Amino acid sequence: MTRSAVPGWSRPRQAVVLVLTGVTARTCGPVATVVGSLLTAVNQGAVLLAGHLGTATFARVAANYVIPYCVASYGALSAVRQPDPAGPSSRWQPTA
User: How many helices (H) and strands (E) does the chain have?
Assistant: First the structure.
């Protein structure tokens, strides 16, 4: 994936759209599938093979896929972040 293939973003809403669609999803999805499958095999393989399929097991398996997707998305989006066109004054500033 080249940097020019991923559109830039400057606002959180744009980042969310990119994470859920487009080049980011097509790139990070396969990464999360491979990493999640390896993590599931290592961490939950014995439980799954023994047939102990409970809610907690499904939650752990889901986390094995969601977390790598989030990490890969964060890395992809960090590379293409652009300054906010409205400038830093448009963001919330804490008061002293």
Answer: 3, 0
